Amino acid sequence: MIVLVLGGARSGKSAVAERLAAALAGDRPATVLATAVVAEGDADMAARVAAHRARRPASWSTVETGPDLVGALRSVTGTALVDSVGTWVASQPELAADVGGLCAALGARAGHTVVVAEEVGLGVHPTSAAGRRFRDVVGDVNQAVASVADHVLVVVAGRGLRLSPVDDLVGAVLGRGDR
């Protein structure tokens, strides 16, 4: 099963994703695929990473993937938690994320996968070309991952809402089912 958990900054998306991964893993440990690389001297980012680790069960392992998320997905077994798409995209040269490779790796996994991603389309229009490019790439990756996911959630203020596929919504609007 693939679950995509979307949310804005400080929305609670990672905490929700951790709870989902724990439930999917059951009594077995999960593996966190951390895409962020903490730069030396970045105390704020180090504190954020430490807070995430402190919330998770001690039995879980962490793989710091950096830019090689696709390779890491192919190498881990069991339940995996990917945190997060935005930092993975930012680590790619020219933001050239291997979206096809990511979706193929997600689809090929035997274990459950929970993917955390930043919802970037609800904020202020970026003023720089780099900001607009980042928003566009992350938005495209989110849509691609959603297309292979079994479930997509959006988290706001620590509360989640399950999103329906467009075909289900169109059918409901046209009175062809209440999915």
Structure annotation, total helices: 7
The count of strands amounts to 7
Could you give the order of the helices and strands?
EHEHEHEHHEHEEH
User: What is the makeup of the main sheet?
Assistant: 7 strands, mixed
Helix content: 40-55%
Mean pLDDT: 94
Any idea what the radius of gyration is? 16 Å
End-to-end Cα distance? 20 Å
Q: List the strand order in the largest sheet.
A: 3-2-4-5-1-6-7
Strand content: 15-25%
Which structural class fits the helix and strand makeup? alpha/beta
Question: What's the overall geometry?
Answer: globular
Which segments are poorly predicted (pLDDT under 50) over 5 or more consecutive residues? none
Structural summary, described in words:
The chain is α/β, with parallel strands linked by helices and 179 residues long. Helices cover 43% and strands 20% of the residues. A seven-stranded mixed beta sheet has the order 3-2-4-5-1-6-7, sandwiched between helices. Helix 3 runs parallel beside helix 5 and helix 5 packs parallel to helix 6.
